[in-house]
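Lecture notes, part 5. Sequence design as translation. It can be helpful to think of inverse folding as translation between two languages: the language of shapes and the language of residues. The source text, in structure tokens, appears below.
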């Protein structure tokens, strides 16, 4: 009960209440007290309510919906894809491991690859869940089923790892990540592991960082049993190790077990550093390092000019290198039977890699019938073939680039924000200077486009 306004006013004036003045009233929202039914049970008549009457007319009530069962996907098999081209030049791409490392094999078959690269765990995290026995068994079974040879598989290392960092704690963190990757490769039965050598981060000389990298390789070779560590050449940022072939040579010279170290040549990176032709590049590499150490190549055209010291990947034939340079590579018997891996932009469409692989395989057929012809300028007689293949690449890229731009307009803001956050996390994790990080940004983006 609450006091009425009239009673409150009279009390404030000190005037007495009269008989007609109500002193209190019930709360406005007070619920009526439930009055029990005094009638005997026999007198209570139960009548159907409206809902019951409607139900009686409409029939039985609606049954609860059954839980939707997940659609079972058919297990991919080799006959689902076009037969791969038989060639001594093993062309492939860096394919996605989304959904399980065993899916890389299916993704490689989908684009017609005779070789492939993969990440054996997230390349943007220091640690990842371990491979399950099911992952390993499925990977090995599919390798056999689809006819892939481990010597044409080139796993790529984490972009966080810097074995040349003079800070001992940070270098140890890199080493643990590096070692974990190699152990995963061993479980999967893989032979190679490709990695970026590292950076001085501006706190050491290049000679000091080179020695630190070699020490880590000697250590990891003792902590594992078989995987060959494959050092990738770099593009020339000032603190990055590996842009000069002599730096790769100096690392190898300090490695005890030289049977477990090799080199991967990236065409975009050597163009950025040396700015000359493939023939002269290979001659320099053979003189300073030795072709016996060449374990694989990354086939990328370049968006930047010769000697730019920038690693900006472009689709095959559309950049500075041009298609004749790749014909020269695929006419060279010295690069037969090693993985030749694309890291070019795909615009989130695997059809781009499928087209590029077809073009490169066609060039290898031309090279096989005519042999190496020397400098790119001497390939004029094949101009018609090259123009035809270049048209194929331009057509498929135009289609999927335009489609991606159209679809991506609505989500551009969110995507840019997430990429910015990812780059920030990467810089915080590695403490590598901005110009050093830019050295691997393009191949990181092209490789992870299907891998996230």
């Amino acid at each position: 009960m609450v006091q009425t306004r009239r009673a409150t006013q009279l009390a404030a004036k000190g005037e007495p209440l009269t008989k007609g003045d109500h002193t209190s009233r019930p709360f406005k929202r007070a619920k009526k007290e439930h009055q029990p039914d005094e009638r005997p049970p026999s007198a209570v008549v139960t009548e159907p309510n409206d809902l019951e009457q409607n139900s009686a007319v409409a029939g039985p009530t609606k049954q609860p919906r059954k839980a939707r069962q997940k659609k079972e996907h058919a297990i991919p098999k080799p006959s689902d894809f076009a037969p791969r081209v038989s060639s001594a030049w093993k062309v492939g791409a860096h394919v996605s491991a989304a959904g399980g490392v065993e899916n890389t094999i299916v993704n490689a078959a989908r684009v017609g690859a005779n070789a492939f690269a993969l990440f054996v765990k997230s390349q943007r995290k220091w640690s990842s869940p371990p491979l399950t026995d099911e992952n390993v068994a499925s990977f090995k079974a599919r390798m056999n089923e689809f006819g892939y040879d481990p010597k044409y598989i080139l796993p790529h290392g984490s972009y966080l790892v810097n074995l040349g960092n003079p800070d001992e704690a940070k270098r140890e963190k890199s080493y643990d990540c590096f070692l974990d990757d190699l152990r995963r490769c061993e479980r999967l039965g893989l032979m190679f592991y490709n990695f970026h050598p590292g950076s001085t981060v501006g706190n050491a000389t290049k000679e000091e960082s080179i020695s630190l990298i070699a020490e880590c390789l000697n250590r990891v070779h003792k902590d594992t049993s078989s995987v060959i560590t494959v050092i990738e050449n770099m593009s020339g940022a000032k603190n990055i190790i590996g842009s000069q072939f002599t730096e790769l040579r100096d690392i190898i010279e300090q490695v005890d077990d030289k049977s477990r170290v090799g080199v991967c040549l990236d065409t975009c990176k050597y163009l950025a550093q040396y700015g000359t032709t493939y023939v002269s590049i290979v001659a320099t590499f053979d003189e300073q390092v030795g072709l016996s150490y060449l374990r694989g190549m990354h086939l990328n055209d370049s968006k930047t000019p010769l000697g730019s010291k920038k690693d900006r990947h472009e689709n095959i034939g559309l950049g500075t290198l041009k298609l004749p340079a790749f014909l020269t590579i695929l006419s060279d018997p010295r690069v037969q039977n090693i993985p030749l891996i694309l890291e070019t932009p795909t615009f989130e469409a695997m059809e781009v890699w499928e087209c590029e692989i077809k073009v490169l395989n066609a060039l290898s057929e031309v090279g096989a019938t005519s042999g190496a012809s020397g400098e790119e300028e001497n390939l004029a007689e094949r101009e018609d073939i090259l123009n035809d293949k270049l048209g194929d690449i331009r057509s498929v890229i135009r289609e999927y680039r335009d489609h991606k731009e159209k679809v991506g307009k609505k989500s551009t803001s969110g995507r840019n924000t997430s990429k910015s956050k990812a780059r920030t996390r990467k810089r915080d994790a590695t403490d590598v200077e901005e110009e050093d990080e830019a050295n691997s940004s393009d191949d990181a983006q092209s490789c992870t486009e299907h891998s996230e």
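The translated text above is only one of many valid answers, since several sequences can fold into similar shapes. The radius of gyration is 34 Å.
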